[in-house]
């Protein structure tokens, strides 16, 4: 079985929409609201540690972005913005942070 994809967004409707979109493509998905995040305390995140990829909502803010960039043990992170249409939330991917790199994400 493939490693899960983590969808990180504090907006519950957005997180559910993006999760539904990935699950519809037969992906195993874990939703994360990024509340009380261990990365913000400089700790390891068990969810990210076992994920194959993470979809990160760019609207979460710079603190979590910096924590993700500085975390050496994490999956590839796909940064996304919400692109609502047809009454649903869809992820529009904007940048990629490759697995284990600590450099600036490159545009997608």
Explain what this protein looks like in three dimensions.
The model has no long low-confidence stretch (mean pLDDT 89). It is globular and about 40 Å long. It has one domain. It has 108 residues and is of the alpha/beta class. A six-stranded mixed sheet has the order 2-1-3-4-5-6, covered by helices on one side. The chain has three helices and six strands. The protein has helices at 12-24, 46-50, 62-70, and strands spanning 5-8, 29-32, 53-57, 76-82, 91-97, 106-107. The chain is 25% helix and 27% strand.
Task: Summarize, please.
This protein has 108 residues and is α/β, with parallel strands linked by helices. Helices cover 25% and strands 27% of the residues.
């Amino acid at each position: 079985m493939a490693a899960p994809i983590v969808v990180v967004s504090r907006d519950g409707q957005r997180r559910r929409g993006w999760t539904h979109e990935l699950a519809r493509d037969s992906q195993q998905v874990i939703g994360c609201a990024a509340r009380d995040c261990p990365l913000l305390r400089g700790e390891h995140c068990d969810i990210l540690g076992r994920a194959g990829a993470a979809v990160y909502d760019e609207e979460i803010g710079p603190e979590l972005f910096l924590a993700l960039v500085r975390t050496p043990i994490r999956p590839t992170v796909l940064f996304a913005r919400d692109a609502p249409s047809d009454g649903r939330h869809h992820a529009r991917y904007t940048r990629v942070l490759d697995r284990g790199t600590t450099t600036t994400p490159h545009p997608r």
